[in-house]
Design a protein that fits this description.
5 helices, elongated, 126 residues, mainly alpha
Length: 126
């Protein structure tokens, strides 16, 4: 049981979980920012049927956009930056923590301004 843990063991377990949270937050961030790879159709197309190849490939806008919208990308970046800041703070890496928290704050402010500009009151739940 946890109540029998020493302070050191509790801290070690907390750090392990925080590192795991940072790992997954960074993974979510990278997935949100990753663009879809275009399908390779050039090798299948012949020179005489360029028009057919153009109709069977995906539209260009589907291939170059990330899988989520810009708002979700910013949320993922802000969360990952905040979690990295938490870990850096716990590891006494003050400059890194400050940098990550500043980035998270800037992203959250931009998200808030975007909601206000879109007509949101900012008082409702997200």
């Amino acid at each position: 049981p946890r109540k029998d843990w020493s302070v050191g063991k509790f801290r070690a377990q907390s750090m392990k979980r925080l590192k795991k949270a940072v790992k997954y937050a960074t993974l979510v961030e990278s997935l949100a920012l990753t663009t879809k790879a275009p399908p390779s159709t050039e090798s299948k197309d012949n020179d005489n049927n360029d028009e057919e190849g153009a109709t069977t490939t995906m539209p260009e806008e589907c291939m170059v956009h990330p899988p989520v919208d810009e708002h979700t990308q910013m949320e993922a970046r802000a969360y990952a930056s905040f979690m990295r800041g938490n870990l850096a703070l716990e590891m006494n890496q003050w400059q890194t923590a400050c940098t990550e928290y500043q980035l998270a704050m800037q992203l959250c402010e931009a998200l808030g301004q975007g909601l206000a500009a879109a007509g949101g009151s900012g008082n409702g739940s997200g």
